[in-house]
Amino acid sequence: KIPPSLPQPTQAPFTSDTRLDSDLNPNSFPGWAARFANMLWVPANRAFYTTRLDVRDSLGIYVDVTAGINVNTNEIFWNFTSIDPITGQPPTSPFVGMLAINDSITHRGEGFVNYTIRPGTHVSQTGDVIDAQASIVFD
Q1: Residue 4: pLDDT above 50?
Q2: Global pTM?
Q3: Are 97 and 83 in contact (CB under 8 A)?
Q4: Do the beta carbons of residue 41 and residue 33 sit within 8 Å?
Q5: Among 45, 25, 27, residue whose Cα is nearest residue 124
Q6: Closest CA to 135 of 18, 32, 35, 34
Q7: Gap between the Cα atoms of 139 and 126, Å rounded
Q8: Strands 132-137 vs 14-20: parallel, antiparallel or unpaired
Q9: Quick check: helix, strand or coil at residue 27?
Q10: What is the pLDDT of residues 63-110, one digit of tens each?
């Protein structure tokens, strides 16, 4: 989960990487979702996804999204980059970005990414523990 308070909006890039437990089947990854600025995206069953989200009506920017799984390193990744629609570059204003400064009423500055994945064929017992480790990098 994204920290509840940042000193300014998050512009570019926002990256999240999750190393998968070796007991998981990386070929079963395709279900994931992301939420930021009170908007939710759920791409349909794709192991790799790239698009430009047009959120000019609500945030005044585009958000470039690249997400997928690297089966060689067993890592899932999400990259979100705010783009100024006039310059085609990351915004220069510290007050413009995909994640607003958070507040406790609207929670506009919060967001998440999540995913579904199946266990490997050798792991299927109730009570098995699956570990996950993630990192998030902000601009």
Answers
A1: no
A2: 0.75
A3: no
A4: yes
A5: 25
A6: 18
A7: 40
A8: antiparallel
A9: helix
A10: 998 888 888 888 888 888 889 999 999 888 877 888 777 777 877 777
